[in-house]
Each structure stands twice: as structure tokens, then as C-alpha cells.
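Standup notes, structure subgroup. Blocker cleared on the magnesium ion input:
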Amino acid sequence: MGEYVVDLKGLKGLAQNLAKQLKGNEVIALIGDLGTGKTTFTKFLVEALKPEEGTVVRSPTFAVLNEYKTKKGTVYHADLYRVKNFDFTDYVGSGILIVEWADLDPSLDADIVIRFQYEGDNLRRIKLEKKS
Ligand SMILES: Nc1ncnc2c1ncn2[C@@H]1O[C@H](COP(=O)(O)OP(=O)(O)O)[C@@H](O)[C@H]1O
Ligand SMILES: [Mg+2]
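Run returned:
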């Protein structure tokens, strides 16, 4: 699906583009160091999926899993940074499941893998890959 070096605006564009391609049941793995934009990308993606009013996307590092209602169904947003062995069985296929630090759970079977790399203060290298 491509490789891009983007600023925040470019990242938003990538999220909007991906949002259009989603059916509503995908597992999306976000992989990259702290501060490379995984949560920011999730925020842009959820915004593009038209969430219900008042939806706030923030890092689920402490909650493990956040849930957002959107026009394309429920988005489950997880972060494995602290909890590495979360059981996703109930969530896979029942909405869009977005997992930050997905590489910490090798058993997670993602449909889309997105890798984030730091390229300076305001730029990130984003690699999007569709599995299957
Ligand atoms: N091009 C960019 N893409 C993503 N984030 C960026 C970019 N430029 C600056 N940033 C900033 O980097 C930070 C990324 O933080 P965050 O999304 O929480 O990262 P992560 O979830 O990967 O730890 C945010 O403060 C964001 O505003
Ligand atoms: Mg994060």
C-alpha cells in the first residue's frame, strides 16, 4: 500500500485514504517507537470514520482498550505497551481493531500493518502493508 514520508497533514491524508478502504472488520497493527505517531494516526483515522459526537481518541496505554462508535461501526483501540498478553478474541472481526505496539503480540493476525519511523521533528516515515 506504499511508503511515505509525511508531516501531520500528510499523515491525516493517509488516514483519510485508508478510512475509505475499510469495510469495518479489519485488524490494523501499528508498529513503531514511542512518539512516532501511532495514536495520532488512530485519531485521524477515527475522525475520518465519522465518530459519534463527543468522541475523544486518546492513548489507551492505561485502559488497554478504548471503544469508539463510528459510521463504519465500532472501532476498538488497544495498546500493548504495558499489557502484552491481551486476549483479542472477542474483538477480532466484530469491528475495526487497531492495536498500537502490535509487534509485542506475535499471535495477533493483522489485515493491515502500518510501520512508523521518526524522520525528524515533524516528519515520519509510514509504511502501509496489506496482508493476506
Ligand atoms: N508527521 C508526524 N506524524 C505523526 N506525529 C507527528 C508528526 N509530526 C509531529 N508529530 C507529533 O509527534 C507526536 C506523536 O505522538 P503519538 O501519536 O502519541 O505517538 P505514539 O502513539 O506512536 O507514541 C505527537 O505529539 C504529534 O503531534
Ligand atoms: Mg500511542
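Discussed briefly. The CA atoms of residues 14 and 36 lie 15 Å apart.
Next: hand off to the docking folks.
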